[in-house]
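User: Please run a holo structure prediction.
Assistant: Happy to. Please share the sequence and the ligand.
User: Here you go; the ligand is iron/sulfur cluster.
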Amino acid sequence: MRLSEVMMMETVTLTPKAQPDLYIDAENITPDAFAGKTAEEIAAIHVHEGNQTGLLGTYFEVSGKGGATAAETKIVIKGDVLRVKYIGMRMTAGEILIEGSADMYVGAWMEGGRIHVTGNVDAFSGTGMKDGELEIDGNAGNYLGAAYRGDWRGMQSGTIRVHGNAGSDIGTFMNGGTIVIDGDVDVHVGTHAEGGTIIVKGNGKSKIGGQMVKGDIYVFGTIDVMMPGYVYRENVDLEVDGTKATFAMYEGDMGERHGKRKGQVIYGHIYQKY
Amino acid sequence: MAKIVTDVVCPFCGTLCDDLEVKVTDDNKKILEVCNACVIGTEKFLHSQAEDRLKVPQMQDEEGNWKEVSIKDAVEYTAQTLCNAKKPLMYGWSSTNCEAQSVGHEIAELVGAVVDNTATVCHGTTLIAVQDVGVPSCTLGEVKNRADRIVFWGCNPAHAHPRHMSRYSIFPRGFFTGKGHKARKMVVVDPRSTDTAKMADVHLQLEQGRDYELLSALRVALRGAPLPETVAGIPRETIQDVAATLKSGRFVIIFFGMGVTQSLSKNHNIDMAISLTRDLNEYTKAAIMPMRGHYNVTGSGQVLGWQFGFPYCVDLSRGFARYNPGDSTSNDLLRRGEVDAVFVLGSDPGAHFPISSVKKIAHLPSVCVDPHHTPTSAVCKLHMPVAFVGVEEAGCAYRMDNVPIETRKVVEPPEGMVSDEEFLKMVLKRVREIKGVA
Ligand code: SF4
């Protein structure tokens, strides 16, 4: 390896200073936008409060500098950013650490890299995620890892891990990737899924796997009401995200269309732990 | 002396009946009698005749005292409020004509506002589902002439759309439906025993909030796959019977209302109902239609769709159109404190929104344009009274099946009163001046 190819990680630290009156769209808080920039240049990057265009430096104290590329750039946000949307949107590489809670659309359409939030995130986080890693220590809102409205291509790949609970409509139209929720989830899990894996370690409610064509949903806790289109097949011993246990395996959704492979119909699966 | 105006369109509900006859005085100033309309439609016409009707704009001060202002002052306040806001919300649009909606959207684009209509608390979820899975629909004329399997899911036309069943869905004798209601099978799905449900051949009285499961079960039954003993409290055999009834029809129409669009699962209920309709088309002809409430909420979706590509909650604040219910919808914006001014026209959020949202409106610069003094006017800084569209002003409206109908002017508005469109044009002119655009 030549010396010039050695990764030189640089860190940019954003410390919230002024609260916006309304909310700000900050889709430019990404390693991609910060790479190759000094603190001064980063402070001059645009953010949007309603119909007004402002500067990142108005709302944040900026220190450090971006690395040569996105992959070499780490962003640390010190504190809650409850009125900031779209952090890490479409990022392709690098890292973001939010030491606190953030608003909607964290890591929406992200394509690579890693986001770690020590607090909570609001709705639409990981929307249409293509790849990368999103880890939330607290709770996530509704539509985690779901498709954008009208899009039939939801989460494609990558991993979302939530240590707390998640809201409703997680993994809608999911095509691939993995979502792991350590806590409980609200209604609608993996609706219209055509692939991918969702693991709920707490309890589910109802409407799990509705209209699912393909994909796997694991629920460790209770399911209040099973969708009528699921049929119990057999018990299986599995190791799921480090837990070895026996699961009841259901196939469905029987009301939905399904493809065939080698003459066999491929269904979606719900596994419920005993 | 009096004369009769024929073919009048009722500007109340989405049925948009176009066969009314209204008796007016010779000078076109007063309505004497309304024929053919249902009770609520008649009321709408007679309301415009109220003696104590507000005719002059009013502004409310900090202490809640109202004082009369000129139309010029009202235009000025509205234009300044919209131009000074970072993210104004322009809400309503469902009880006005398409012409006014279009002018309103021009203002919204200039000031960077969010435009939202009453679908946001009504059939917005339907629009989400249509975007997700498409929609096989038809016109009410096709229903009248062809449909022999009628499903009312979570709606109560006997009260909300009183002439719907007699004009289109149950009783009329159409081209291929010469026997009227005798040859039609009526299925009502509702957790309550409504007056509509009492007329049904089959009433599926399901558990509250389990529409998604029941719709799914019907799809499973259509495919002949096994079902649990009961779904949503309905026995398996009943579900299979209903599936067979629908399959055996020549033309199935599913009408649905707010009982499914605003109960648990919301857009997913409609998504599943549309999927059921699609599945039925493998056996027979089937269509699905939302029972839209306000007479021109469909038109608002049409005009927004034509101009910006999305049917409601369109966020223009960044200079391009964005849309995401849950983020750009009125109640989410108000609840979260995302907007700093509110303009309401052709709806009454003061009466229909949660109190937490209404309180937010009360604390913001706000304008209410409405023929009546409504609960919304009570919390707004400015109330602008206008002429009744569809009674004192003509214009285009869209029926619930997306058919545009030109409404008629029946009488003259009181002296000096302007229409929604005229008021909006004055505001637009002033906004252009403030923004310095030609
Ligand atoms: S059914 Fe609706 S449109 Fe027809 S007269 Fe009654 S209120 Fe008016």
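Chain B touches chain A at residues 85-87, 111-112, 128, 131-132, 210, 212-213, 216-220, 222-223, 225-228, 231, 264-265, 268, 271-272, 275, 279, 317-319, 323-327, 336-340 (CB under 8 Å).
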